[in-house]
Design a protein that fits this description.
By secondary structure, this protein is of the alpha/beta class. The chain contains 12 helices and 13 strands. The strands form 2 sheets. It has a 7-stranded mixed β-sheet, with helices on both faces. The relative contact order is 0.12.
């Protein structure tokens, strides 16, 4: 098995230079760096990660804590995080906090004890214990998708990245209003999540812009899960004056809503129009094809890695929040014909390609 001594001899440099190239601890001339990399490749040298971490106090690993990893949205985020981490030579330790605040704090502690260099976390609806732990131990952290405020006075610096929620949701509601709908229901997410709050705000903005009143009876929480969304949809449809159109606030809840509509023998869009927040790979395979807001999930994951690496390089950076635009995929579940011509509005998200 090749050693650092073998690499140094083949490249014609000192062992210290090989170490600086491997650990990125000091600038090395480009031609010298390339000679070392060529020697590593020729000899098949594999660095001792454990020994390197003892020297650098870095493990080149990132802890990722995301609930509902089986959800296609979070699966794509995971793909973005993994690609970004591998590109920069980092590995991932992945855990599912199950959206449970106490388990979430334990997950953060376990990742921290395994000496990850930093964490990327999609926090729960009540992350107080998590935030206290991260602030107490000053763990470099990026929150993704669900945004949070750090404990007051903690001085904890963190970063976060997520999609725009309010404007895109307003555009879905506005589009349904343009189609003549006056009772538009919302199957909302888990209370306490920033995504839920922002999408409800967008729903209300969309109604207000269309001159429609807000009726709290038309908002039912599906808690971001399919089964609960199915029950929420049944409650909305059981109203004395049920909605003629529905907006679902994430992809898992869209599945639950479709099950409820099937159980009631209702057809989309003939009996009820449907628009959804979150695209997924089979959304345009349904009949009718689903009109959706698509979040840039892979870009959110890659952006979280970029923010974390920047914080590792400069720990005293001020906290940053990055918002990425979403896309409107206009299909037919809203009641429009195929390939509709739809004018843009200043408040709407950027238009996705027709499909």
């Amino acid at each position: 098995m090749a050693t650092m001594v073998d690499v140094a001899r083949r490249a014609g440099v000192s062992i210290a230079t090989v170490s600086h190239v491997l650990n990125d601890t000091r600038p090395v001339l480009p031609q010298t760096r390339q000679a070392v990399l060529d020697a590593i490749d020729e000899l098949g040298y594999t660095p001792n990660t454990l020994a390197r971490s003892l020297v650098t106090s870095r493990t080149r690993s990132i802890g990722l804590a995301v609930s509902a990893i089986s959800n296609p949205y979070f699966t794509e985020i995971l793909q973005g995080v993994e690609a970004g981490a591998l590109e920069h030579g980092y590995g991932l330790l992945i855990a599912d906090p199950h959206d449970d605040p106490e388990h979430e704090r334990k997950v953060a502690q376990l990742l921290h004890e395994r000496r990850v260099d930093g964490m990327i976390i999609a926090p729960s609806a009540t992350p107080d214990a998590l935030l206290r732990y991260l602030a107490q131990h000053d763990v470099p952290t990026v929150f993704l998708d669900r945004l949070v405020d750090p404990p007051a006075g903690s001085g904890f610096r963190h970063d976060q990245v997520g999609a725009e929620n309010t404007g895109p949701m307003a555009s879905l509601v506005g589009h349904l209003a343009e189609r003549g709908h006056r009772r538009i229901g919302l199957v909302a997410g888990l209370p306490g999540l920033s995504t839920t709050t922002e999408r409800i705000t967008g729903y209300r903005h969309g109604l207000a812009r269309a001159g429609l009143p807000y009726d709290e009876r038309l908002v039912a929480h599906g808690d971001s899960r399919a089964k609960t969304a199915e029950e929420a949809t049944h409650r909305l449809l059981a109203l004395g004056a049920p909605p003629s159109a529905l907006v679902t606030a994430n992809n898992a809840m869209t599945i639950g809503t479709l099950r409820a509509l099937r159980d009631r023998g209702l057809s989309v869009p003939d009996d009820l129009a449907l628009c959804c927040f979150d695209d997924f790979s089979w959304a345009d395979l349904f009949t009718p094809r689903l009109t959706v807001i698509a979040q840039p999930s892979k870009e959110i994951g890659a952006g979280a890695v970029r923010l974390l690496l920047e914080r590792l390089a400069s720990p005293r950076l001020e906290s940053r929040t990055v918002r990425l635009p979403s896309a409107f995929f206009h299909r037919t579940s809203c009641g429009c014909p195929e390939n509709p011509v739809r004018p843009e509005s200043p408040e709407a998200p950027r238009k996705g390609p027709e499909s």
